[in-house]
Design a protein that fits this description.
Layout: H1 3-16, H2 26-40, E1 44-47, E2 55-58, E3 66-73, E4 77-80, H3 82-93, E5 97-104, E6 111-115, E7 122-125, H4 126-129, H5 137-160, H6 166-181
Parallel strand pairs: 3-5
Antiparallel strand pairs: 1-2, 2-3, 4-7, 5-6
Length: 198
């Protein structure tokens, strides 16, 4: 990532964690930024705040339907929990390509978008997620280009509003971004399980 994106993300992390040393929403903030990124790439998107996977993205003209587990780290490794792996397996049975999206918070780092099929729970070196078997370079490149724009569009505002309002604000931003992708009145923008049956 470029210096501007890193500065925004570092400022947001500091802002959100100003009251406590524990994560007070930084991971979820990055998750919503990533969901907005997928909207801007032309996907229909559902962002989840609890249980199961983090993001479902579908109905793209080129890429497959994907289900995403999002992780942020400051290390060269990432921990994948059993619930993460189980959630993605369930989505794979529903026809989604399961992927991990991992962001290392460091200058010149970027999102790693990797196929998750066959990955076991545990601690994984980031380099292992970028192997040719797992790599999704075309999607990863597009995500990284758009993600920086999303962070630059919303970063200053997120850093200036009260911490308890950040996720609500970003959820509203995501809802607005979804409307730009979803043709008004279209049922095709809904996941298959939510479409109206005739």
């Amino acid at each position: 990532m470029d210096a501007s994106t890193l500065n925004h993300l570092s400022s947001i992390k500091k802002h959100l964690n100003s009251r406590s040393r524990k994560d007070n929403g930084f991971g979820k903030t990055c998750q919503i930024f990533l969901a907005i990124t997928f909207c801007r790439l032309g996907f229909q998107v559902e962002n989840y705040s609890s249980q199961g996977v983090d993001i479902d993205s579908w109905n793209h003209s080129y890429f497959p339907n994907i289900s995403i587990e999002v992780k942020t780290t400051t290390k060269h490794t990432v921990t994948l929990g059993q619930k993460d792996v189980d959630g993605l397996k369930k989505k794979a049975r529903e026809g989604y390509e399961p992927i991990f999206a991992v962001l290392r918070l460091e200058l010149l780092s970027s999102w790693i978008i990797a196929k998750a099929k066959g990955i076991k729970a545990g601690n994984h070196p980031l380099g292992r997620l970028q192997t040719s078997v797992r790599a999704m370079p075309e999607l990863q490149d597009q995500v990284n280009q758009i993600f920086s724009r999303v962070v630059n569009d919303y970063g200053a505002i997120v850093s200036s509003i009260p911490t308890e309002e950040v996720l609500t604000y970003l959820d509203k931003c995501l809802d607005r971004e979804k409307l730009k992708v979803l043709p008004k009145g279209s049922v095709m923008g809904l996941p298959a399980g939510h479409r109206f049956q005739g």
